[in-house]
Amino acid sequence: MFNWIKKNVFGITDKPLVLTKEVKSKKISKAKLEKMTKSELEAYGRKFGFEVDRRETKAKIIKQVAKLK
What are the sequence ranges of the domains in the chain? Predict the structure, then answer.
């Protein structure tokens, strides 16, 4: 009965999730980076595993994030 509830109510299955495609991040042009805020640049840098110091100027952050492409 519990298996029926898990399957039909919650949508939980016993099969493991298998990823078929690797998600590739799109390269963003420098002009688009300049339109982003510091917090958006920080979030974009985290996608690549890079921690942005928001105390830096926006121009320095853009240079650092542009290298991650």
Answer: 28-69
**Closest alpha carbon to 40 in 31, 52, 49:** 52
Would the pTM count as exceeding 0.85? no
* Helices and strands, counts by H and E, the chain: 4, 0
Closest listed residue to residue 54, CA positions, set 69, 68, 63, 41: 41
Task: For 41-57, give one letter per residue: b (16+ CB within 10 A) or e.
Answer: bbebbeeeeeebeeeee
Collapsing DSSP states into helix, strand and coil, what is residue 14? coil
Instruction: Count other C-beta atoms under 10 Å from residue 65's C-beta.
Output: 21
pLDDT tens digits, 1-56: 667 776 767 666 666 667 676 656 667 889 999 999 999 999 999 988 889 898 99
